[in-house]
Design goal:
Strand content: 15-25%
Helix content: 25-40%
Number of strands: 4
Number of domains: 2
Distance between the termini: 27 Å
Radius of gyration: 17 Å
Shape: elongated
Structural class: alpha+beta
Length: 107
């Protein structure tokens, strides 16, 4: 599910709070904050390939870093990845690093 800013602007504060509550997001009092929390929650971070030279990686595998700009996204992504058995290599300054194969499947 995704929401656009235009769609969210049309909703009442009560409707926005319902969406936030459903996705376990903060229930702030300002409409603009509620909209920001919802949009941030549903924005998918872009993967970044790490150039870390200290870790030795087998051929055909890569280290991918996912930049986390919001603590709520970090919590949600960590929960999802933990449930799927994907292992975090390490976390550093807002980026979680994973080992993936050439098709970007988690290893």
């Amino acid at each position: 599910m995704s929401y656009s800013k235009t769609d969210l602007d049309k909703k009442t504060v009560i409707e926005l709070r319902y969406i936030c509550k459903k996705h376990k997001l903060p229930l702030s009092s300002k409409k603009a904050d509620l909209i920001k929390n919802i949009l941030d929650h549903f924005t998918v971070p872009e993967p970044v390939i790490s150039t870390n030279k200290t870790l030795k990686v087998d051929s055909g595998k890569k280290i991918v870093g996912v930049k986390i700009t919001d603590k709520y996204k970090l919590i949600e992504i960590s929960k999802q990845l933990g449930n799927n058995g994907n292992k975090i290599l390490y976390y550093s300054i807002g980026v979680i690093y994973y080992l993936v194969d050439e098709q970007f499947n988690f290893v």
